[in-house]
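SUBJECT: A protein chain and its fold
Encoding: whole-number codes for local backbone shapes
Chain under study, with its fold:
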Amino acid sequence: MISDNFRAPDHSGAAKRGASLLTGLLRCRRCGRKLTVHYTGHEGDILRYSCNRGWLDNGEPRCITFGGVTVDGAIAREVLRVVQPGAIEAAVVASEDEARKQDEVLEALKRDLEAARYGAHRAWKQYDATDPENRLVADELERRWNAALQQVEALTERIDEYRARDTHTPAVGVEDFENLAADLEALWHHPDTDARLKKRIVRTLINEVVVDVDAEAGEIVLVVHWKGGTHTELRVARRRRGQSSQHTSKEIVCAVQVLVRVCSDDMITGLLNRNGLLTGRGNRWTRERVASLRSKSKIPCNDPDKQSSEGWMNLTQAAQRLGISPVTLRLAVERGEIKADHPLSGGPWVFHCQALETKAAADLVERTQRRNGRTEISTSRQRNIDFSSA
């Protein structure tokens, strides 16, 4: 720990009070130097990472610079994703270790009691074998016998107290730790959580993060080097000039762009709320907010006539067009036989008429009709057998 706290090119440095989560962990992919952090804003809470050591030391061109809020958020989500699956298992193992330690303590007390009883019995035998005329020896042996008996009594009371305390401790199982992962996330995002604690957790799991900026894709590329030797690549959308953390996420905008082909604004509002998605300001969606999002993103509203002319349809309409059940069509889409969009897990499937005119769709219809025909024939034969036997 002392070696890692030493600020050097090969060390991350000590965890400090700043809000930056990745101070000392980011390394530039272009020049190999560590990135530095700068705090701006009225309250000094806006952080920005930059690679400018080459420019400061040798007058070289600046490498990369980007905002740190989204990058820290992405790394924090990745850390919680890695930690949470093992949180319940680790808690159960810790509980089992504690129970095992308690059993070991009880066994040790029992061994001490057995030794004390042996010592008391040996002291009694010595006292019983002594000559009563020798008063000095008899008094000393009696004192030793009484001391051994007091030790036996003390150990017996201690074992009884330990067993009584152990019976009042409820047994802990997996169900008692079901909310542990959620509690960990709530503790992580709590405003009173010490930033240095979160930094130490990150440094326990991550060796360093190699970072670069993909200007064409508008993304920040992060390669996380975990302590166990595993490497994970993350791509974070780079915030454009004029954007803030209160902007609606790109995923929601893309989902609305797909859903508007088959859904009205009222339906989109319900779908977004049922999937637990919020606006950039953390509010629930309303029809007005969906319309405002479409207007800002230049997404046209849903028009049934235009939808029909362009060939867009939902799962039920596509199944009716092919003459098969919606379940059969959905299973075929999940197998990858027919192309369809599913922007929200709890939302509709969106089909285009061209996807229903492929050879794969024709084969699906043929297989379904053939299977339904065999079912009808077998049912008819079964009825004939029943009638003949009657």
Summary: The chain is about 55% helix and 10% strand.
